[in-house]
Amino acid sequence: MDIQFFISSLKELDSHSQMRCTLKDMDIVREKRGKDPEKMYVNTAAVSGTISSGSGHLQLEEVFSAMDVPVLSSKAFHKYHNIVFDTWEATDLE
Description:
Layout: H1 3-13, H2 42-52, H3 57-66, H4 74-93
């Protein structure tokens, strides 16, 4: 995470003088993870896209690094890889 960008973004949020709101008016909402089978969550989607393009963990690592996004560990990649393949297999059987 680029801490300088984060701090400058916070400062920018705190200067909404036209709207008369400040940083203290902001509500922090945490990420919510559900169990909705109709949704594909970000890690699953990233791994699915990687597999679909014929790539693997190393290529996903390169893309994430270029975007300054935390990289999935090899263990996490393989966990989602198995989820994706199980889903594809179940879909194929239908």
